[in-house]
Amino acid sequence: MGRYHKHSGAIYGFQKPNTFEHMKAHDYKGHHAHNVYYPFSDREEWELAKFLIDNLNQGQITWFLKLLWASAWKPPTFKSAQTLHTYMDTLPKGPKWRCTTIHTKGYITTHPVHLIWRDALEVTQHIFGNPAFANDMEFDPYNIYVNGEQEYGEWMSCLCAHAIQACNIFLFTEYWH
User: Fold this and answer.
1) Distance from C-alpha of 158 to C-alpha of 115, rounded to nearest angstrom
2) Number of other CB atoms surrounding residue 162 within 10 Å
3) What DSSP assignment string belongs to 35-71?
4) How many whole angstroms separate alpha carbon 98 and alpha carbon 119?
5) Quick count: other Cβ atoms within 10 Å of Cβ 5?
6) What is the pLDDT of residue 36?
7) Is the backbone of residue 14 left (phi > 0), alpha (psi -120 to 50) or beta?
8) pLDDT in the model for residue 116
């Protein structure tokens, strides 16, 4: 027999669309229904574009695209580095990396110390909005009882998950009232 937490399923303050909803509302949604790699023609073209963006600058990409080999074998749909960058800009973005220089009093460093980080809330929203994880997430703490004894399996079945659920509800309730 199983039992969910009494406040399970309640969601507060998330009216913004997630990554998947952004993709569905995008101007190119009709194209995505037929080709998941749109604006690229197929997976091979996507891999070529990713390789070019990751390894070459704009001048080198333009030079590569002008090669007879590149146009004779299977010409890509993008004909210039600018078009390639425009295609890449239409793809969904994840949370941005940030950099903060750390200054300490009384301790001089040879080189500045940089903390490279991402905003935890943005990362959480991105993960929860990513359709790749949609079927693998649990949101509701639960208890499983077998012959009168509690059984533990996944993290959401532990007592700590119930305590956190109750704590979050209390904090959100106190904050908004």
Assistant:
1) 34
2) 19
3) -TTTTSSSHHHHHHHHHHHHH--HHHHHHHHHSHHHH
4) 8
5) 19
6) 75
7) beta
8) 96
> How far apart, in whole angstroms, are the C-alpha atoms of residue 62 and residue 75?
13
**What amino acid is encoded at 163 in this protein?**
A
List of residues 6+ apart from 128 with CB closer than 8 A:
18, 137
pLDDT at res. 122: 86
Taking only the tens place, the pLDDT of each residue in 29-82 is 555 567 778 888 889 999 999 999 999 999 999 999 998 887 787 889 999 999
Residue 16 has pLDDT above 80, yes or no: no
Write the single-letter amino acid at 66.
K
Contacts of 25 (CB under 8 A, 6+ apart): 17
User: Which of 19-23, 91-95, 153-157 bottoms out in mean pLDDT, i.e. has the lowest?
Assistant: 19-23
First to last CA, the chain: 36
Kindly give, in sequence order, each residue whose CB lies less than 8 Å from that of residue 163, ignoring residues fewer than 6 positions away.
none
d(CA 150, CA 177): 36
Sequence-distant (6+) residues with CB within 8 A of 132 are none
Q: In the prediction, which pLDDT does 105 show?
A: 86
